[in-house]
Amino acid sequence: MGAFAARPGFVSSSDAPDAPAAHFGNPLGEQRLLARGRAVVELGLGVVTVSGPDRASWLNSITSQLLLGLAPGVSTETLVLDQSGRVEHAARVVDDGEVAWLLTERDDAAPLAAWLDSMRFMLRVEVADRTAELATVGWFGPAAPFAAVELPDAPVAEWVDPWSSVTPGGWGYADLEAHPGSDWTLRIAVVTPGTLAAIAASDVPAAGLLAHEALRIAAWRPALSDVDERTIPHELDWLRSAVHLSKGCYRGQETVAKVHNLGHPPRRLVMLHLDGSDAVLPAPGTPVTLDDTQVGHLTASAVHHELGPIGLAVVKRSLDPAATLTLVADDVVVSAAQETIVPPGAGATANVPRLPRLGAVRRS
């Protein structure tokens, strides 16, 4: 059973024996505590490590982010793209001076580690999938809610999400003056099972994955779960935090540069405000339609403690941002109003008199 299984109201997020909680009986209350920095959430992420003196230059050469010169303890994220610029893997990255820690979705840890291992050649790097021996817990704000708990081991790594501002070398397609991710202060600690058990046994409030997902959607924060076989970073506004536009060559860079400078992403991410009148929440993967024609699909959905039912959807670039869309869930037609994340005109920046927003100050 999971470390938090003994907590009252525990509902598992899957059939896996060590799965984190989906919720503890009160998802909306858990969201409020999590958003205020008072609760922790077990995230169940995959953990891949890269050690060796060539790790920074090697990772820099095969992924989308500038990782050369990354100071110990500084967090970023990076993408592995295919030759056509489509997203294959995504990793949250922090280096402690000896080891680069890559956090990804649990199901992607083994494929990511295998791909990295296949790319080592003669370089002095070692790749390890350490998902089975470590755990991940998240919270919002600078101070961990479990700071006063006596722990058997200190966290082995801590990652700070850069989503609250456009990272150096990145580009934000969304309007930053009104960006809901400006106050996104997620931190993730990688901990030993003993430390996770100590946190679970304490009186620190806990939230489930449903709470975290609702807050993620409201912050327009992309994740690997929003990706399909066609996704390029521009469609999810992922140039904001995971791509450096002026670094050296890497696989997929040509597509990244061409779409950003000369073209437009074929699809774009929107947030949907879903009609909750029938208390039905469409599931990820549900087709999004306009006048009985499919124009996209839902990638994530949740009930937010302030906004109500919301979702993220990838839709056609040409879709009218003002159009009311429909989705079907349990034979119920659910209407949805759009909130633009990636505008229809995103891209083609070589023809737009605009400078990149580089290195905006992240709120802590």
Task: Describe what this molecule looks like in 3D.
With 364 residues, this protein is an alpha+beta fold. A 6-stranded antiparallel beta sheet has the order 14-15-16-13-18-17. Strands 10-11-9-3-12 form a 5-stranded mixed beta sheet. A 5-stranded antiparallel beta sheet has the order 5-6-7-4-8, covered by helices on one side. Helix 1 (27-35) crosses helix 5. The chain has helices at residues 27-35, 55-62, 106-118, 193-201, 209-218, 239-242, 253-261; strands at 11-12, 21-23, 40-42, 46-51, 75-81, 87-95, 99-104, 126-129, 135-140, 157-160, 186-191, 206-207, 267-274, 287-290, 293-304, 308-316, 325-329, 332-340.
Round the Cα radius of gyration to an integer and report it: 20 Å
- Beta-strand residue percentage: 25-35%
Global structural class:
alpha+beta
Mean pLDDT: 94
- Helix count from the secondary structure assignment: 7
| Oligomeric status | single chain
Largest sheet: 6 strands, antiparallel
Strand order of the largest sheet: 14-15-16-13-18-17
Helices and strands, in order, run as EEHEEHEEEHEEEEHEHHHEEEEEE
Write down how many β-strands occur, each being a DSSP E stretch of 2 or more residues. 18
- Alpha-carbon distance between the two ends: 34 Å
- Low-confidence regions: 352-364
- Helical residue percent band: 10-25%
Gross geometry = globular
